[in-house]
Each structure stands twice: as structure tokens, then as C-alpha cells.
Amino acid sequence: MSVRELIVLGSASAVPTKARNHNGYLLRWDGHGLLFDPGEGTQRQMTHAGVSASDVTWICVTHFHGDHCLGVPGVVQRIARDGVAHPVDAAFPASGADFWARLRHATAFRDTGVIRERPVAGERMPLDTGDAPFSLVARRLSHPVEAYGYRLEEPDGVTMLPAELAARGVRGPLVRRLQEDGRVTAPDGRTVTLEECSVRRPGQKVAFVMDTRLCDGVRELADGVDMLVIESTYLDEDADLAVEYGHLTAAQAAKTAAEAGVRHLVLTHFSERYRVEDEPRFADEAAAVFGGEITLVHDLDRIAMPPRRLTGPEAGQDLGHG
């Protein structure tokens, strides 16, 4: 059975705290593992979370501030040490290629050849995901250094309607052939089309938005996603600091989610200026403007993707993700 979940490896901002490690987020998706912003200590956090270097198929860096990338050397060296054989694609801002090179080769170790660099540039850049069951795009954000957010999308599929199939005598191998070919000949000689026996199943979508002010990129990434993982460094009382340092408040993140039609809002990247007892204020601030599901993350949380949406009757036979 496929697994789609977010594993939070760290949730602090610039300075880690006793309760929160530097950033790190592993999105598990049907056998793939996208590791976003591995900050300092990510390798150890992966051990605590019960995931290994072999689970990683992508490393996606939003920008080259330390809390978002200082874990790269440890993760790469663990990939080498564990003998990971599959390719690991690495996306990062092209303007920070020198920083990537320093991190990638930070110490002496027996190197690995599985890392495939995928530098991103421009306002919006699709990334080549090969035969992976999703597409991935990087979108420019607004931060003092060049930064990108990422959006993962599953292709739309179909959900078969058992009652419609039965009414037309389509069963067994004919169902699969109908899904693959778009039409079949039923036992009574009638031609049956896929449209008659199915409803469209929108592909699931996730957006990952770290350090940024409000901008068009944030809104584009968040548009209609099932899960929005987004920084909420500050409370709204410190909105002036958010603008100055290129960050969002919890209220701004929630307003973005509400306007974009997000289903599950995941808040993270909290400033060390706030105390543990301040945490409920982030959730309360977000809930005041967003009526959907809200998760204020803690390290090592595991957050499942929301159930998928259908465009027609919800009763049906789900024949996979494609």
C-alpha cells in the first residue's frame, strides 16, 4: 500500500531550541522521499523518525541560509556510507551553486555518484521528475537571498463507478481495459466508454513554502493544494519584523490558505523569540482567518495527506493513483 505523509524532522527557524531542531521535512510519496531543507542535525533526526538515507530520492533546498541547508553534508555522506544505489536528485537555487558545492563536499569522505544536481533559476521552473508519479515545480519567492518554494502535483485520474459498470456488464479484465483504452465492447456487443462509468479524480497536491514575504509566488504555489506546508515565523503583532526579515506571520499564512482554497494548513518554522506557552497563539491566530484543518507542527510529527477529493459521487472503486 502506498504511503503519503509528511515527517517533520525539525521546525525551528534561525536558532534551534530545546524543543525544536533546525528545519527538515521528508515528504513520503508512493515510494519516493522528498527531503526539503535539511538543516543542521537532520541526519540524527532521521534516525529518531525511523527513516533512512535509502528513503530519500530528492533533496530540495529553498535557499542557502544555514537553518535550511547545514544538514546537507551529513545527509549526502550518509547516502554514500549506506551505499544508496538509486539516483537522488538535488534541487537548489542556481545562484547558490557555490554554497551547494561547499556543502556537498564539506569534508573528506568516500563520495557517491548518485547525486544528480538540478539547479533552479527564473521565476518559475518545472523540474524533470522522470517516471515519478508526480510533477515538481520551483517558484521564486521574496526573501533577502534568492529563495524558491516547491509544488508537487499528482496527475488527475479516474474513479470507476461500480453501479455503472454493472449496468453495462463490464467486469473483471474489461474494467482495466476500459480504464487504459477509454472504451471497450461489452459482452452484449455495446460500446462502453470510460466517461459513462467513471468520475474524474483530481490529483493530490502539496506546496512547500519557506522563508518569504507575501508575494505572487506564495499564492501560486498554494493555489488549490491539499496540504500547504508554510513558514509562520512570527505572530501578527510582529508583522513589521516579518516584512523586514522576509518572513510570514501565522495570520498571513492562514489568509493565504483561505484565499487559495487549501484543505490542510501546516504551520512551521517558529522563531525562538516565542516561548513554548506562546504556541497556541499561532494556531488561534490562524484559525481566526482559516476554517480548514490546521496543524502546528512539532519535531517528529507525522502528518498524513488528506483523503482525496472527487468531482462526482464519492462511492466508487479507486483503481490507483494514476
From TrEMBL:
Please name the CDD domains in this protein's record: RNaseZ_ZiPD-like_MBL-fold
Protein residues bound to Zn(2+) 1 = H63, H65, H143, D211
UniProt keywords, alphabetically: Endonuclease, Hydrolase, Metal-binding, Nuclease, tRNA processing, Zinc
**Domain of life, source organism:** Bacteria
Q: Which SUPFAM superfamilies match?
A: Metallo-hydrolase/oxidoreductase
Residues involved in Zn(2+) 2 binding: D67, H68, D211, H269
Can you give the residue ranges of the Metallo-beta-lactamase domain?
A: 21-247
Q: Which reactions fall under this protein's catalytic activity?
A: Endonucleolytic cleavage of RNA, removing extra 3' nucleotides from tRNA precursor, generating 3' termini of tRNAs. A 3'-hydroxy group is left at the tRNA terminus and a 5'-phosphoryl group is left at the trailer molecule
Cofactor or coenzyme needed: Zn(2+)
What residues sit in the active site?
D67 (proton acceptor)
Task: Describe how the cofactor binds.
Answer: Binds 2 Zn(2+) ions.
Quaternary state and partners of this protein? Homodimer.
Known function? Zinc phosphodiesterase, which displays some tRNA 3'-processing endonuclease activity. Probably involved in tRNA maturation, by removing a 3'-trailer from precursor tRNA.
| This protein's name | Ribonuclease Z
Q: What is the lineage of its organism?
A: Bacteria, Bacillati, Actinomycetota, Actinomycetes, Streptosporangiales
Q: What's the name of its gene?
A: rnz
